[in-house]
């Protein structure tokens, strides 16, 4: 998640200290793993790689790193062999005459080779330049051990000497990357997949999830580095299917449940430093997905304590959302509480939004029944109204597709969310998705694995298993073909060089909402 | 000192631990003084200022600093009110929506306003870019107190926000500069000077010296930051006349005496971190000036212990130098042991070099007598030979000027050093300097206060007091007119924008060898 921009500076927040205390009690220990670079790499332009670059193993031998002394404008790229999240240390010495000037060093941390090739100064987008993973460091005295205080998300590390002096050069040794996650690959039960493509997709999904599991489920360890509801829902599902770290999910649920607006709305995301802070951003389906995440969690754990603690907030989201549903069963979205659905604003989102509400309401009703909700009929009636309206008004029987009421637009997202919402039975859903595949595939104009995930799940749910597998291979598999060690925040198969921010140095190449193939494969195959 | 470049990687060094222990015993306590900015400044192009820029007091009020929140590409310049050397801390907060990206901040420390205006990326000279006093800092979490670990030499501090995010801005408060020196202005005895120009020159000299007095006499606290013999000699003289911190001079003498080559030569400069390291640079008159500095120290202190400890090294320098003096009394300089005299290589230095040797030999003989040197006649004979050769061969009686033997060149440096060496009596010296003033003033082509110091002292010594005062005012006074808070490493009155490195960001505007007017005024006025 990242691409949304709201400022709501007049919001008053409730902090429920009892719930937030439970969030803190479930703060995980971070597991550290020592990683040393496996090679020195040369980054070269090549359309076979992400954003037009690949890393080749250099003629230089990583075991002789200290011998490759570097002077002004000379650089070397270390390859960790895989994508990791953590801290970097390096020993540095001077070679030659006594060190008669400071060492001025630039370090660049890159998830993909294209980031090494990109010039930071060329980036001028609206997302903050502060996300670019580079540091400029002066060292007045050598030898020294450089221990960078910040966390990075990377596979490649460029060491570039801006200057030494003409009398000496810099020598680097003992590069160590301490990888961090709240889970370990050792927690993963063996899982056999015969199809080699799906096996690769599964493995990369799991690595993506692991790197995003820190003290919260982060959206991207390189950029945003924080807990969004949209990512959390998918990460939690993938986590149940793999690492099964229930404490982290519980912690994240409590973080959202513990910080709500005066009217009870959960924020789209929260910050955890310097203290627990809710963001002033609100997205319609993210709010109601709080109920879905709680229902999923209860389904996995049967943990009544968590359910009881957080049910009131889940109910509140549904109640707030239901105020937007009119007597006909039509969801009327508000400008200040928009549905996200996908980054793209090229299609109308009302029908997809209606689908997300039905989807969430179904899950809420399950936990409402567990909680012996007295007003259960209200929710069931709204659900019935919304389904009725969707079938009668939003479904075009001639086209066998859902439309957007105001302009009769037919788009992929509407079909997908109405299928996921199970507005019709599986047979009808199968017809809808078959029509969608026939008329709208190959998909264009959708940039996020988040939306692609929902397309694939809708295909599975509608029984179009083969089409679902093909789409997974064409989408996530294509990222692997381009060198992905972890799956990306954004990818358009029809435009492989697409970067939503105009430069690969701003893109996140390890992004939580792309980790779902592990869940999809385990659930549907 | 700075502008010399030698690599001698085959030198073997003796470390005399007994002497180096005495150097460490005289390591001074650094005195810290808290300085807060007095204003916010606007840097504007104006030929009235150093290198074409001045700082004007901004409309913004320093007491409201925290109110001036800064977003992408916005900056503010703090003015400390005077030049200082030390460490900087700053409180930083975010204002607006929750901090959804790191803060990326650039800090630039400038001795003169022109450094703020200069772009670092435009500098491409041979001196290391690592000297540019700027830092790029990421802060992941605000509020924070930024305590920069490095030491800076500056009056102006630019805070430039490279980026926040569109949702919040950075706010700065509590800027504190902790100024450092081994001496304090409180140690300075009151000293009345009626002439306001000379008073200003005296005060700026003293400030220059104070800022260069750290754990050694540094050449420049911004750039080089280390102990050179050439600067030490002048700093010690200015120090005797002002702060009178004898321990630091003693320490520096022991540092040079404790680290000599196998043949006994002292290096031109030494490093003190990460350990005591002699540089592999050798300059002829710097070596023999070790004897002059020791003689000056003994003259000031009558400290026989230091004299006895270091006399052998002083003698060694003279012995090595005397090997270059032929039977006629002619100094024959070697390429690997060049005379410095001045940065300029536009004039021949042999005659000036001959002068430095006579100057040093005279001072050595004084301490040799104290030490009851048995070979005293040898030194006295060489001195006589060199004086004889200088008078008979190097002096052009028609021109009343010293020439360079090989090409009959007449230059300022030759006259100055022969006068300082007292090759003739004062009457004759007066004639020589009068001729020099008449034929070669205003001086052109000399860039260093180091050489200008020797010109002024030669004028005083020759009895040309008025000319000496005029030259002091035209040289050091002109720097003050251009806004100098401390005196500079390099200055050509005939070319005020001259920068020896092509950019003001590389120049040192507080440089030890320019601090001598305090000594000259006290000694000769």
From TrEMBL, chains A, B:
Coiled-coil parts of chain: none
Alpha-L-rhamnosidase six-hairpin glycosidase domain residues: 191-523
Pfam families associated with the record: Bac_rhamnosid6H, Glyco_hydro_78_N
InterPro entries reported for this sequence: Bac_rhamnosid6H, Glyco_hydro_78_N
Stretches that traverse the bilayer: none
Domain Glycosyl hydrolase family 78 alpha-rhamnosidase N-terminal intervals: 37-179
Protein name: Alpha-rhamnosidase
């Amino acid at each position: 998640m990242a691409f949304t921009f709201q400022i709501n500076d007049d919001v008053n927040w409730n902090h429920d200290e009892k719930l937030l205390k439970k969030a803190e009690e479930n703060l995980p220990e971070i597991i550290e793993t020592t990683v040393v670079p496996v090679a020195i790499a040369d980054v070269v332009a090549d359309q076979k790689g992400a954003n037009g670059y690949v890393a080749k193993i250099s003629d230089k031998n990583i075991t002789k790193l200290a011998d490759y002394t570097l002077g002004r404008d000379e650089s070397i790229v270390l390859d960790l062999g895989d994508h990791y999240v953590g801290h970097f240390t390096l020993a540095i010495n001077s070679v030659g005459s006594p060190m008669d000037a400071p060492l001025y060093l630039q370090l660049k941390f890159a998830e993909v080779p294209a980031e090494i090739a990109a010039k930071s100064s060329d980036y001028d987008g609206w997302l903050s330049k502060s996300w670019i993973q580079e540091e400029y460091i002066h060292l007045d005295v050598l030898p020294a051990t450089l221990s960078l205080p910040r966390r990075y998300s990377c596979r490649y590390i460029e060491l570039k000497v801006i200057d030494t002096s003409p009398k000496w050069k810099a020598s680097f040794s003992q590069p160590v990357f301490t990888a961090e996650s709240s889970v370990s690959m050792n927690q993963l039960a063996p899982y056999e997949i015969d199809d080699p493509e799906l096996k690769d997709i599964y493995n990369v999904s799991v690595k993506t999830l692991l790197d995003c599991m820190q003290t919260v489920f982060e959206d991207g360890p390189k950029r945003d580095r924080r807990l969004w509801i949209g990512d959390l829902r998918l990460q939690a599902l993938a986590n149940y299917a793999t690492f099964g770290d229930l404490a982290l999910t519980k912690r994240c649920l409590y973080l959202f449940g513990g910080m709500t607006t005066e009217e009870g709305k959960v924020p789209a995301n929260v910050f955890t430093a310097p203290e627990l802070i809710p963001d002033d951003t609100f997205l319609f389906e993210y709010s109601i997905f709080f109920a879905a995440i709680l229902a999923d969690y209860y389904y996995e754990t049967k943990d009544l304590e968590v359910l009881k603690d957080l049910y009131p907030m889940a109910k509140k989201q549904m109640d707030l959302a239901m105020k937007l549903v009119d007597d006909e069963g039509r969801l009327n979205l508000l400008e200040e509480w928009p549905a996200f659905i996908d980054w793209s604003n090229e299609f109308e989102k009302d029908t997809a939004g209606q689908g997300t509400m039905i989807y969430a309401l179904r899950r809420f009703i399950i936990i409402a029944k567990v909680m012996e909700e007295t007003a259960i009929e209200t929710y069931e009636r709204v659900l019935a109204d919304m389904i009725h309206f969707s079938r009668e008004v939003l479904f075009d029987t001639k086209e066998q597709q859902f439309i957007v009421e105001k302009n009769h637009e037919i788009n992929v997202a509407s079909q997908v969310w109405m299928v996921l919402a199970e507005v019709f039975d599986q047979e009808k859903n199968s017809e809808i998705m078959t029509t969608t595949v026939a008329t709208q595939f190959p998909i264009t104009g959708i940039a996020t694995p988040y939306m692609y995930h929902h397309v694939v799940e809708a295909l599975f749910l509608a029984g179009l298993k083969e089409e679902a597998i093909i789409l997974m291979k064409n989408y996530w598999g294509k990222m692997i073909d381009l060198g992905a060690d972890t799956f990306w925040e954004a990818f358009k198969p029809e435009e492989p060089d697409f970067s939503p921010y105009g430069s690969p140095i701003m893109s996140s190449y390890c992004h939580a909402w792309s980790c779902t193939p592990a869940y999809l494969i385990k659930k549907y195959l």
